[in-house]
Specification:
10% strand; six-stranded parallel sheet; globular; 247 residues; alpha/beta
Length: 247
């Protein structure tokens, strides 16, 4: 049974502050000649503005690289163009650099690292209602052990096998694999804040799925007005959980 799949960053957790800090350290550690004397407020603002374009950790590093070069992004297509010109080897190296910094943060000042990644208001209470519920998983490109640490910090006792991390596999492919493995009989509802991760309504139905765009996460305004996709707000998520698991 697989009833509800929740993305983590941008749906459950507001991690953009940690993402900026960790990628800044990781990027400029290896480009010391380019290191500014201070972090310009505009750099951080631009990073936050570009956050909706990314799908995984190494993409966060690409944002730092593009900002350092002065490359401007105006759309998802702009980001995809820059990504297509970045080698897989470079992306994997960036991911390695990023997680090296995150490991150092965890060993040096984990409390600060966790404070930079708060759960959205109301999410802790929602997760507590789901902790003992079958058929609910967290699916993310973030490493599962980092997700588990954030949940533990917020006193949410989530099962380790209820967190699934994907890197090269798409989230839709991962969900379909889990549907087959669990012989899911019900429609699987998937909530994510990144439109390219989701399927349009008609296509989702053919995969025994319902995909919902979380409008409180790192979303572009135009995504919420694309009528081929369903959106959901925080109140809608609470109502959905109550309806799905009322028994």
């Amino acid at each position: 049974m697989l009833r509800l799949v929740l993305d983590f960053d941008g749906v459950l957790c507001d991690s953009v502050h940690e993402a900026f800090y960790a990628t800044w350290v990781a990027y400029y550690r290896h480009q010391p000649e380019q290191l500014p004397n201070h972090i310009p407020l505009q750099t951080r603002s631009t990073f936050y503005h570009y956050r909706p374009f990314i799908r995984t950790g190494q993409h966060l590093m690409l944002l730092q690289h593009l900002i350092a070069r002065g490359t401007q992004l105006h759309s998802q297509d702009d980001f995809e163009r820059e990504l297509s010109q970045t080698s897989e080897e470079q992306q994997q190296q960036w991911r390695s650099w990023l997680y090296q910094v995150r490991e150092e943060m965890r060993e040096g000042d984990q409390e600060q690292q966790l404070r930079l990644q708060p759960l959205y208001p109301g999410i802790r209470e929602l997760l507590l209602k789901l902790t003992l519920t079958e058929g609910v998983i967290i699916l993310s490109t973030k490493r599962a052990d980092f997700i588990a640490a954030i949940l533990a910090h917020n006193r949410v006792p989530w099962k380790s096998d209820g967190i699934h991390s994907v890197q090269k596999e798409s989230k839709i492919d991962a969900i379909q694999r889990l549907q087959r493995a669990t012989q899911a009989e019900h429609i699987t509802i998937f909530v994510d804040d990144h439109l390219p991760h989701l399927l349009p309504q008609q296509e989702a139905t053919t995969h025994n799925m319902r995909c919902l765009l979380a409008n409180w996460g790192y979303v572009l305004p135009e995504w919420c007005h694309n009528h081929r996709y369903e959106t959901i707000d925080m109140a809608g998520l609470r109502s959905l959980v109550a309806t799905l698991f009322s028994a």
